[in-house]
Write a structure and sequence with these properties.
The complex is a heterodimer of chains A (544) and B (228). By secondary structure, chain A is mostly helical. Chain A is 69% helix and 0% strand. The chains are: A mainly alpha (544), B mainly alpha (228).
């Protein structure tokens, strides 16, 4: 029991990762069910045959898929999971600043997970209440986590670990914690007020009189009044970057490690990460072009959203610059990191179109948006999570995931996700474009059913490919324990240079001293960065 | 192949060197190489006491997120007020002005308590600290009475948007203040001989939080008053 309710950062990080694993598997099955219904709307959705098959049920299915994936996979795994495990080790702290708060964060997240899952089985009205309470609880847990990460990075760095020497992963976790702290407060406030509207009858967001006093042309049928939308999108657009920032950090770190080169323009990468966070914080209006805004507001938001392309493009340039002329080691982890880059570019490009409010309103439809954000946020981030899992698995479990199976899993998944989401972009552009005459649109709509079926087959293909991952994961964990070197990837950061699987207590008492940055190579010939903690005189002795 | 160039010769040895507590957390310049006792490698590890600074930074960061929570509500308040004609202004109960004076006084007494503690006058500290806690509880009791006053006038949470915002602002502030009173009681009753945190640090952090809640209350009161 003491292990379950442990305050050890590694145990808590692993608990987050297990929760994410369960969520991602359930969420993936749900996405297959959603595709089933889109392709064959007249048939009963498998597995859910015992529930009533209503439009509300389908909406609840989408909500459950989105909530599980966004909250418990994309938000929880890269930041809270890997961050809890490795931030204290990478900065030489040994433990989080507030271990008990870390435990509280996890258990709030866990209860929220249970609440959101249970809410699906309740009738719609009660289900939304439970969902809102769970989202509020998740926000509170995320807030506590963000405070903990921020304080840990500011206060607990080892002697010599100055800010420029922080690994990019630690920078990303730190910047992301600051962003999370700002936006989850807003979601908490919004959820609390909406819950109060629903349970106590207060009148923050939705009242008949509010609607009655709005100009009719600004009202959208069936939508919530704009105050809630503003608060929600204030959170939700920045949430995309909360999911992505740690993934940027992970990708940068892994690419440098496996390319055996320093991060290209490392200092500017940190600024770019900060820039993504800052701009991401300012673009919430992009989701509200259709609501009653000041006519100039969409222009401002469009410019801000497009300006996100600048730091994003810089990150891409840095990854490519690091890979340039490098002797790359194509491990499964590196493949997933490079897959992340590919998906991020592919998904990010369509984002530039969506940032333009005129295009977003007129030319594209839901499927384009679904394709865009799944590529850039969902799938790209999942690739980064998988890259991180392959990379840190030896540190977490003292054994390595199988490389051949891992690479096969990568190629099947990589081809699968492109086969799902690229056609979705076309569907969005072709079939529902409001610029085409009605007759042409109808003709295209009937022709599009084969593309939809293709997408569904690709979804089944991709979901099936994950069996390889589950097999790899299970056989590695359950199989015979192999001896693994303490630093199998030749990384320079502190977490690899402590003894394998140290207990929190031992590490809490011991602090390394840091002498250099995370990506320093002694010379061009060398294929291994210098560990951050090795004293210069020892290094000199070794080279002699 | 991964691992083929690993260098086991640079694994760490944990060495129990006690490091003095520093304000400012981790990063300082690393000691020059080979500085002591002929230890000429990079295998040194210093035993580190967790810096008490984390509590100061923790409360500062916590204050930022609490501020963001209230700013979200404040922006909703302004947008909601300006966007619909169903807004019926709430007359601020006069009791709130008395409560404000009580809260401001408590900020003063908590500062006096802090000064007493710095002068190592523990009985003086406890006296002012207890007064502050009592004033804090008095403020909360006053807020409850103000709500009762409004209820007796038929103004409830669900009456109209303005009353909803009045109750959520004062209620959310009261919940945060309750946390502050809890922290004050912690400082009173905690045996600091065995605690991780010292009395000085706990008292200072609580005082900062309390001053913040004080300032936040003034802001909320002005918002409610001006934004009627």
């Amino acid at each position: 029991m003491s292990r379950v309710f442990s305050t050890n950062h590694r145990t808590i990080g692993l608990q987050y990762l297990w929760l994410s694993l369960v969520s991602v598997l359930v969420g993936m099955v749900l996405s297959a069910l959603l595709r089933w219904h889109t392709s064959w709307p007249d048939t009963v959705i498998p597995i859910l045959a015992f529930l009533e098959q209503t439009p509300e049920r389908f909406a609840a299915l989408r909500l459950l898929h989105g909530s599980l994936m966004v909250f418990f996979v994309l938000t929880a795994a890269p930041q809270m999971g890997f961050g809890s495990c490795f931030l204290p080790l990478q900065i030489g702290a040994g433990e989080m600043a507030f271990p008990s708060l870390n435990r509280l964060s996890f258990w709030m997240t866990f209860v929220s997970f249970a609440g959101i899952t249970v809410s699906f089985f309740y009738p719609q009205d009660r289900g939304i209440d439970i969902w809102l309470a769970s989202a509020a609880l998740f926000s509170l847990g995320a807030l506590f986590g963000a405070i903990n990460f921020t304080v840990t990075t500011i206060e607990l760095r080892a002697p010599g670990m100055t800010l420029p020497r922080l690994p990019i992963t630690a920078w990303a976790w730190f910047l992301n914690a600051i962003l999370s702290m700002l936006i989850f407060s807003v979601l908490l406030a919004g959820s609390a007020a909406l819950l109060s509207d629903r349970l106590l009858g207060s009148e923050f967001f939705s009242t008949a009189s509010f609607l009655a006093h709005q100009p009719q042309n600004l009202l959208r049928q069936g939508s919530l009044p704009v105050v809630w939308e503003r608060l929600f999108w204030y959170f939700a657009q920045a949430e995309v970057y909360v999911a992505m920032l740690p993934c940027f950090g992970i990708a940068t770190h892994l690419i440098a490690t496996f390319a055996r080169k320093p991060v290209w323009k490392e200092r500017l990468v940190v600024f770019a990460l900060g820039g993504v966070g800052l701009a991401g914080f300012c673009v919430w209006g992009c989701h509200m072009f259709a609501t009653g805004m000041n006519p100039f507001a969409p222009l401002v938001f469009a410019i801000l959203a497009a300006s996100l392309g600048v730091p994003a493009a810089f990150l891409v340039a840095s990854w490519l610059g690091t890979l340039w002329d490098a002797d790359i080691e194509f491990t499964a982890s590196m493949l997933f990191a490079m897959g992340f880059v590919s998906l991020f570019i592919a998904g990010g490009l369509s984002g530039i179109f969506l940032a333009r409010q005129d295009l977003a309103r007129a030319a594209v439809s839901e499927e384009f948006v679904v394709g865009h954000f799944h590529l850039v946020m969902g799938v790209a981030a999942t690739f980064a999570i998988l890259a991180a899992l392959f990379f840190w698995f030896p540190k977490l479990f003292g054994r390595r995931l199988g490389e051949p199976l891992g690479k096969l899993h990568f190629w099947l998944t990589f081809s699968g996700v492109y086969a799902i989401f690229m056609p979705m972009h076309w569907l969005g552009l072709l079939t529902q474009s409001r610029l085409l005459p009605d007759a042409q649109r109808l003709a295209l709509a009937s022709a599009s059913s084969s593309i939809r079926a293709f997408v569904t087959v690709a979804t089944v293909w991709t979901v099936a490919a994950q069996v390889l991952f589950v097999v790899n994961f299970a056989t590695t964990l359950l199989g015979r324990r192999s001896t693994v070197e303490s630093n199998p990837w030749n990384a320079s950061t502190l977490e690899w240079n402590a003894l394998p699987l140290p207990s929190g207590e031992d590490l809490a008492l011991a602090r390394p001293v840091v002498y250099r940055g995370a990506y320093e190579f002694p010379d061009h010939e060398s294929h291994a960065p210098v560990p951050q903690h090795v004293a210069p005189e020892l290094l000199a002795a070794r080279t002699r | 192949m991964p691992g083929t160039t690993s260098k086991p010769d640079i694994d760490l040895i944990i060495e129990p060197v006690r490091e003095p507590i520093r304000r400012g957390g981790g990063p300082t310049a690393p000691p020059p190489g080979g500085d002591d006792s002929g230890s000429n490698d990079g295998k040194r590890r210093h035993r580190g006491q967790p810096s008490p600074n984390r509590y100061y930074t923790g409360i500062a960061v916590g204050i930022v997120s609490i501020l963001m929570f209230f700013m979200a509500l404040a922006s909703a308040f302004l947008v909601r007020r300006g966007s619909s004609a169903d807004w019926v202004a709430v007359r601020i109960p006069s009791l709130l002005w008395i409560n404000t004076v009580v809260l401001l006084t408590s900020s003063g007494t908590i500062e006096l308590a802090r000064k007493r503690l710095a002068a190592r006058d523990l009985p003086g500290f406890k006296r002012y600290w207890n007064i502050s806690a009592v004033l804090g509880v008095g403020f909360l009791a006053g807020q409850v009475m103000a709500w009762r006053q409004l209820e007796s006038q038929g103004i409830y949470l669900a009456s109209n948007p303005a009353s909803s915002f009045f109750y959520i602002f004062t209620g959310a502030h009261a919940i945060h203040l309750l946390g502050g009173v809890g922290a004050m009681l912690y400082v009173v009753f905690r045996n600091f001989e065995i605690a991780k945190v010292s009395r000085n640090v706990a008292a200072e952090v609580t005082a900062y939080y309390w001053h913040f809640l004080d300032a936040l209350w003034i802001f909320l009161l002005l918002l409610l008053y001006v934004g009627r």
